[in-house]
Design goal:
This protein has ten helices and eleven strands. The protein is α/β, with parallel strands linked by helices and 259 residues long. It has one domain: Spore Coat Polysaccharide Biosynthesis Protein SpsA, Chain A, CATH 3.90.550.
Length: 259
């Protein structure tokens, strides 16, 4: 069974109560859940929360919800806590709760390598960077990968460094530079093994838990996508998400209801 788990933490440092932030009359976590449910490859979608209020809200819109300990430090540890309880789970997909408009096809793209190749234990997405703003932003994680599409390194710094380019615009024009999209598909046993490992040096330096896998010699398959999603981390991101909803999502919802 392939199960999508959406980790949702109430106490975000940059946007407190983020999963409950209103977008078009629905909490953000509900948007994420409804889009994940449209995946063609997921057999089930559940939500993992750390807060009673979050739990009640998720239950109110019909989700299967698990209450997890507040002291769990990462989203991966939160989904591992739930995955252990889901005995039928073979593949577990970590769907970020702060991506309200995640496209179902992106979820399927992340899952596909695990279906086609038994040697792949975890996969994730990357998209080519096309703006200088993304290149410079430390909140946009960059990834480099080998000729077989296995990750070599993740960083908040612009990698690879294009030595001969004079400007950042030259860099994104003359080299393929990719941003990481934090959607992961794991074989369950691999997820449990990964989350049992101690934090590593590079992980602590970059604040990127996927480096724990690389430092321990595990391979991460990279799927290049042309699709895009909106991640909500700050009040500014939330305003962008609300405007996106009003411009693109709301008109489609009205058309669907009219039919």
């Amino acid at each position: 069974m392939i199960i999508g788990i959406i980790p949702a933490r109430f106490g975000s440092t940059r946007l407190m109560g983020k999963p409950l932030a209103d977008i078009g009359g629905k909490p953000m976590i509900q948007h994420t859940y409804l889009n994940a449910k449209k995946s063609k490859l997921l057999d089930k979608v559940v939500i993992a929360v750390d807060d009673e209020k979050l739990y009640e809200v998720a239950k109110s819109f019909g989700a299967e919800v698990y209450l997890t300990p507040k002291d769990i430090s990462t989203g991966s540890d939160r989904i591992a806590f739930v995955a252990e309880k889901l005995k039928d789970a073979e593949i577990v997909v970590n769907i970020q709760g702060d991506e309200p408009f995640i496209q179902p096809r992106m979820i399927d793209q992340a899952i596909e390598p695990l279906l086609f190749d038994r040697k792949v234990n975890v996969s994730t997405l990357a998209k080519r960077i096309t703006s200088v703003e993304e290149l410079k932003s430390p909140s946009v994680v960059k990834v480099v990968f080998d000729y077989h599409n296995f990750a070599l390194y993740f960083s908040r710094a612009p990698i690879p460094f294009v030595r001969d380019a004079r400007t950042n615009l030259d860099r994104i024009g003359s080299a393929e530079i990719y941003k990481h999209i934090g959607l992961y598909a794991y074989r369950k046993e691999y997820l449990l093994k990964f989350t049992s490992l101690k934090q590593t040096d590079l992980e602590k330096i970059e604040h990127l838990e996927q480096l724990r896998m690389l430092e321990n010699g595990f391979k991460i398959k990279i799927v290049v996508t042309e699709l895009e999603s909106i991640s909500v981390d700050t009040p500014k991101d939330l305003e962008i998400a609300r405007k996106y909803y009003e411009k693109y999502i709301k008109p489609n919802e009205k058309m669907t209801k009219a039919k």
